[in-house]
Amino acid sequence: xxxxxxxxxxxxxxxxxxxxxxxxxxxxxxxxxxxxxxxxxxxxxxxxxxxxxxxxxxxxxxxxxxxxxxxxxxxxxxxxxxxxxxxxxxxxxxxxxxxxxxxxxxxxxxxxxxxxxxxxxxxxxxx
Length: 127
Description:
The chain is an alpha+beta fold. Helices cover 57% and strands 14% of the residues. It contains seven helices and three strands, in the order ααααβααβαβ. The protein has helices spanning 3-11, 15-29, 35-41, 50-57, 72-83, 87-95, 107-119, and strands spanning 61-67, 99-105, 123-126. A three-stranded antiparallel sheet has the order 2-1-3, covered by helices on one side. Helix 5 crosses helix 6. It starts with a helix and ends with a strand.
């Protein structure tokens, strides 16, 4: 399998499938996806420490549900699929906006989540 074929396969995966893939890779190779960020931040000291920290924050985004819109049931189903929450927890989240759906995710994953929720009528913000 070439790199391009692997990338194409990953592009076709859902957010949940990607999360499971990351966990499987972490277990298989004994690494953590968060480890490089911590290693980069640790050696930096003094006044220069603020600049790398700001760059790192830009790599992690929060997906905030602002409004469920007219198709609340569909939004609840999508929130459950994205977060893995139970029905009651997902309903509580959707009933009381603004609430974070997912925090600390990559820009690509945040955009995917936003697109899924907007497709069922929800109003979503990425911070």
